[in-house]
Amino acid sequence: MNKSxxxxxxxxTAVAPExxxxxxxxxxxxxxxxxSMHAFGGNIKKHVDxxxxxVAALIGAEHPSEIIFTSCGSESDNMAVRGTVDAMxxxxxxxxxxxxxxxxxxxxHHLEDRGYRLTTLEVDAMGNLDMDRVCAASSSGKKTxxxxxxxxxxxxxxxxxxxxxxxxxxxxxxxxxxxxxxxGKMPINVKSLPVDLLSxxxxxxxxxxxxxxxxxxxxxxxxxxxxxxxxERGRRAGTENVPYIVGLGRACELAMERMAADAEHERxxxxxxxxxxLASCKGARVNGxxxxxxxxxxxxSFEYVEGEAILLMLDDVGICASTGSACASxxxxxxxxxxxxxxxxxxxxxxxxxxxxxxxxxxDVDYVLEKLPPIIKRLRELxxxxxxx
Length: 389
Ligand code: PLP
What we know:
The protein folds into 2 domains: about 5-10 and about 260-380, Aspartate Aminotransferase, domain 1 (Alpha-Beta Complex), CATH 3.90.1150; about 15-255, 3-Layer(aba) Sandwich (Aspartate Aminotransferase, domain 2), CATH 3.40.640. It is an alpha/beta fold. It has helices at about 15-25, 25-30, 40, 45-60, 75-90, 100-115, 130-140, 160-170, 240-280, 305-315, 335-340, 345-350, 360-380, and strands spanning about 5, 65-70, 95, 120, 145, 175-180, 195-200, 210-215, 285, 295-300, 320, 325-330, 330-335, 350-355. It is globular and about 70 Å long. About 40% of the residues lie in helices and about 15% in strands. The two termini are about 30 Å apart. The chain has a 7-stranded mixed β-sheet with strand order 2-8-7-6-5-3-4, with helices on both faces. The protein is built from 13 helices and 14 strands. Bound molecules: pyridoxal-5'-phosphate. Pyridoxal-5'-phosphate (PLP) binds near residues 149 and 203.
């Protein structure tokens, strides 16, 4: 029987057993509504507050009330962009980058279609931003809302968020960062960062799917997108998802405890895999700035081979990875991130992302290194474009 190896942790992570355990009492025992006047419900509020404190601690937020719970990273991103643009009024200039997740590009393009001016910053071949362009965009003289991701989900490339946020703030703008991929993997301290808003997603850090958080610095004006009750201090209506909130709090606490050890472990596995692949697969290259990326991520292109074909063959032997490509309107579109980086045509369709977590092992890496090279060799032999098989 095939082994099963999951190296797609930037897509989603397993819920940590400690997280599941923390959540269970809130389904059948403590299932009250934290807004209730009676003690059975009201007592639940302290657990929500504790979870808020744990999320705040993970990112160094000064006041737990600066954290609001959402349903996912996408909701946090949408709320940050649309809520701040709406609250600012007067059609602010919106700034983002070409390599953002769809949860940011979607609302930005939606606003552009409604007449807002949108600047989408380019990246270079390594996936880095040109700071002169950030500077030029931020000094347009108009009120600005900028959203720039901290770490890219496909390549792991990290943007210099402190510097970018500083430029936007100097110009008087509001700054949001999508920290979905970096939260829990690397230290964050919003006390010493000029960011106004920051998004987190539970299922990227061993909490369940269906829970996220948005940090909103005190004093930042934002229009709620879900209106109704007074939950989350009137910033997001809806009865709190208590078990998931508790789970997110526990996941943040675990991430804080284990961050350095996990990062070291993931980096070691990632580097072992990367070195092994580059040594054993012809025409392989790593995409993105290898000196400036998340410790758990590698994105590797295989020349003249289709990423989807690689994935299917990996799947057949129990290996779960991913490709940035998406099957759009019958044609295989290369990843918008790799296109923005001008990855050569012969490489852009054949990219695979491997992303690790604390539960991966050296045996996982060795299994991928055993199975992948023959797959690449076979696919290259089938490719009409490869010169040398
Ligand atoms: N932002 C980034 C960078 C992501 O990688 C993802 C998910 O892949 C999201 C936002 C969306 O998060 P969620 O799946 O929780 O909606």
